[in-house]
Predict the structure.
Amino acid sequence: MTGRGSLIVLSGFSGVGKGTVLKRMMEKYDNYAYSVSATTRAPRVGEVDGKDYFFLTTEKFESMIREGAFLEYARYVDNYYGTPRKYVEDRLDEGKDVILEIEVNGAINIRKMAPEAVLIYMLPPSADTLKERLTGRGTERAEVVAGRLGKAAEEAENIGRYDYVIVNDDADACAERLHSLIQAQHLRVNQNLDFIKEIQSGLEKFEEK
């Protein structure tokens, strides 16, 4: 069977709990690598280059764009953000399942650049639950919560472009379901073509002459 990892793209509404689920899954299982993004913004206090982000100059980032060195990238508020192709490919070659936690537009771009990527969208049990989670944080103003719910309604139009949906009704249970779903990707036929050919070749000697 193949030793190469799977490229997993995880998206979800703000407040759905993606970060919590990923943290619990990656604490329990060691076969995952979280993709580190590159950015041209300045590091914040406590951020470490190569761990939180790869901090690049604008000139370096734009040079990498021209070289096709990003799986996807975008520009927000005068700064670039992107997913370095080499970092992802190196982890996949090591047999790690690489997790990219990105928004819808980035996920769609990943699909264009890496058709083998598995796109998963995390949903809340209900729209009301999502509102309760956003409100329950107690850190956002009412207009901010309303804005995020409006953004969620827009994003929902693109869920059909994903391969799977997964419901976060309980963080631990959701982490287990996500892990099982990702591991199942290793059994896909297109992930095991070399192994299949090896079996087919071995069976040829049993064919009737």
Q: What stands out?
A: The two ends are 30 Å apart (CA to CA). The chain is about 40% helix and 20% strand. The chain has a mean pLDDT of 91. Residues 12 and 138 are 20 Å apart (CA to CA).
